[in-house]
Amino acid sequence: MADVHLLDVYGELKDIGYQGVEFGNGKKALVRTMDAQMRSTRLFNENYLAFLSALDEVVKRGIKHVVLPGDFSDDGQPLNLRGLNQILEDYSENYGISFFAITGNHDPTRPFGDKGGKWDFLGKNGKAQPILSEPHWHSIDSIMEHPPLLSSDIREAGYKEIMDILGDQGFFPKEEYLFWATPFSKYRYEEYSISQAHEAAAFEQRHYTIGPSNMGLPDVSYVVEPIQDVWLLAIDANVYLPKGDGKEFHGSGIGYNRVVKHKKYLIRWVDQMVKEAHRLNKTLIAFSHYPMVGFNDGASKEIRKFFGDTAFQSHRVPDEMVSEILADTGLKIHLGGHMHLNDTGIHTTKEGNTLINIQIPSLAAYPPAFKVMTIYDTEALAIETVVLDSVPGFDSFFDLYRREHSFLLEQESENIWDDGILDSKTYYEYTYNHLQNLVHLRFLPKEWPAGPKRILTTLTGHQLLALSHIDKRFNSKELEKVLQGDESDPAWQTALAMAETQIIENNLKVDDFKSWKGDTFILGLYTLRNADKIALKDIGPHRIDQYRLIAESMLRNRESEVLEPLKLFVTIFEKQLKGAPAANFYVDLIKGQITPMTHKDLIEKKETK
Fold this sequence. Notes:
The chain has 609 residues and is α/β, with parallel strands linked by helices. The protein has 21 helices and 22 strands.
């Protein structure tokens, strides 16, 4: 379960005794505003309930081992760390589940902690309630916000405090583990003893140096054998680069592109663990917060060209050289998070080594899901993606959001979120509606190039297909007329007629193409990017056929320069459609191959395991 981003909505800021805003029958909740959620790539509030629901599903399936590949907390605040640990301890004690966590860039946000707080918790009467760890950090808008509350429970903890609270979740050895070690420990498997492991686990023993001053920074990577012959390799891929005098740090969000440069010892350790696992006939499963292989289904080049170097998370794509280095350690399988995407990436090196990177979706975003791995032997395993649909109580805070929405309307705020999301019947539908709001409130305004955005948000599907039939004589001037509603140009009328003929020849309906504008095509891209083939049921097979027809027709047009930006867009869409299996699939670790499987196939395979 990656990117849980747990905010303890039923927790308490102990130093000030604050439990949040009242709702329902006198209950209280520490929740963020819906406005904050609708502009973030993750939910802050309902994912708490989704996490409990996911853990209940784990219990129902009889699963006993759960890995948490980073961003298990909202921002490493003591409030949230305590709440998370209590949940994990409860499930451990009541159901015998063992948890194995590794840090992400949200836990910690800085290696030794930092001030913290959010100015968009929800307060009384729909108004925002800032809660900060230090005063004078935020300029208060007295109309839109209550006076700030101050609490040290909202600061952002560093590694040491995180380890102190969550140490039992894999970060330290236990008697029941068959083996446990770190990149800094010296003992071999045959020499292992729990006393040696405890010595190696001491926080001061787990540091590396960085920068010209050789500053010591924590690294909490570990390898553990929780059951016979299975090794879990937890890699702390956070890299915090010091600023200036070393008192402050840049955030960690880039991942392995920085690891190979600043934590080379970690690559050597991975290589060593792969060799040891092979020597001892262990199945080695690596997990960390960041992807080791590209997650754009081969469309990274087009994405950078269309969106730029930082939008669409392009700066987080591992370089091919980085994937090459990691794959040539001999590592075969890696579970990653960070991206909030359901995806499978495969990289085969010049030496013939294949690394399969499985991207785990976030429970706090569309699609809300976790992965179940079934290990058959050292050579084979299967992956099942479990999507959360029903989450009990996911709508608990909806009345609070309705009051917030009314308050924003009263203040005549701009770009208010669509309150239609509060009609969601399931948690799955809620996350899908969250993605729609996110596209319109954040991605389109901040990431999209103006030209293609205007075309796609103005023209219908029928008009977009017609656009694929224009020639080089139809230039930007003629296109501008169409965008302004003037379709009288004879060349354009011919293109519309050609589009209609093409639709009919493909056994589709012209009215269906006229019923939507290109902004639904944009949403389709984000839906597919987030969920992979899981998205097909949300987009719908007929709409997919329409998108494909437009894409294929545009890519065949080699005359029009006007189409070039849109051809990039549809190329990205096409490649996202053709990615490796990412829902349910079987992995042959020897051949480095994956084969798609239905849910029924997986069940039958488990029964014959």
